[in-house]
């Protein structure tokens, strides 16, 4: 329990950090409300000439979309944070503490993501209820949906952590985030439920893990919790598989720390800058002032 | 008793070499040229319990790489390493409870929150008992004079206040060894002195071993009794601070105020400054005794005031870094 306490503490201090600037914190949810409102108008145009698509009427569709977006927009920029830490060498200073680095990142990620997700759902539900005057939620379905969304976020964390680890090999991991996001947009069921897709895409989506991040939890909210145990069973299996993959790659990636950190990091930064800037003296001076203040830049032999 | 030892410790890695220009960029994609860099090469040393050792060297000498291997973050390419009887890279977690680290250029404090929150977090991370934590925190706040800044967000603290908090939080779990990587960088002289006093007191009172890297000679002189100098990945000199300062260059500075103008002409003397009756000489005591110089001056004129001092430590270290051993004394100390 003492071992776990430190991760709860990281969870709570991240929350304190997130709410430090209350206006920023609140504005995220106002943006989310606006976002849902805009899409409600868009979907009303789609449903103007039909009442149902693959069993989803206008109301059901909007609620489904609100849940998937609540989960999708809750995730913090872990990949960017990791990428910055790896490239600058700062990661070594978080590694020398008596905790698991993966669980440290997980606690931080889940703290930000859970709070944002719950707030998104609250604001989104309130808005949809005001617009539609109907609510498909039941107490059991909501509870089961929250459990499944928690597991979905955990799976989401593992993918973002993997993308973050890619910084050990690639300078810029934004391409991976872009690709991953597109998977979530489509076979993850972000914009439309998997039922909308042709059967071959649906079959393809069902063997991939992405549906367990957005589609499956959102469906549980909608259905009142039917198939709950089947869904969380698949989610847990996926979490176990990807946790093993993440742990293996992380251990291997630690060896890549050889090239990042200390003065080597400085040298690499200069070399990296040289790729995009031609004035060496200016680049070296700027970089050394930023990183080492008084030290003289020196390229290793 | 040795708490930290390395034997033939080496670390090498490969870096991609690329010349500037578009053509070279394309070329490096298809046929990258790699170069092996020996960041640390056959480094051997030992540090005893309670010692304060300076580990210094020019930029890129391998100091940070060595510290990262000692704290278990990097895996050595070859050689042996032991910290408090543990192998750092194999027992990183176990070791992290027993060591503390302060990196002047990095921060472990949560930037937007008061320092108190980071102390609370570290108490849980290091699994410190709640009652014990309160006792330690009270003592640390008093020793480091933190009572007025503990509840201010870290981003609003001055650099000196932040570094005080950094050091304080890194000793909260009472580490047996404290690794300090340029703890006084960017600080003004008054704050630098405060930080040095704090570290010195901790070393004396608690017997905590201090392993320091710094470019500031003042840090080394104030805190460390022993110096290890590393360059190009190799330990090039190991000496006590006293010996390095007083004996390495074998030169003394003789400042005089004479009755009348006179400049002695003797082998082993060079004039640093001469203005009227004021005279500053650099005396090579391996060639001539101070006493002989004074006797020569007194035979010609009277001395109103006199001061004998060592050459500044900074000069000594500069000479070692630049490899200027024209006096043939580097080998002698080694």
Task: Briefly summarize what is shown.
With 301 residues, chain A is mainly alpha-helical. Chain A has helices at 2-18, 22-46, 58-72, 78-88, 91-95, 101-132, 139-165, 174-185, 199-207, 215-223, 228-254, 262-276, 280-292, and strands at 52-53, 56-57. Helices cover 72% and strands 1% of the residues of chain A.
Q: Oligomer, anyone?
A: heterodimer
Taking the alpha carbons of the first and last residues of chain B, their distance comes to 23 Å
Distance between the termini of chain A: 50 Å
- Poorly predicted spans of chain B: 325-334
Mean of residue pLDDT values of chain A: 82
- CA-based shape of chain A: globular
Largest inter-chain contact set:
A-B, 45 and 48 residues
Counting DSSP H or I runs of 4 or more residues, the number of helices of chain B is 12
Strand and helix order of chain B = EHEEHEHEHHHEHEHEEHEEEHEHH
Average pLDDT number of chain B: 86
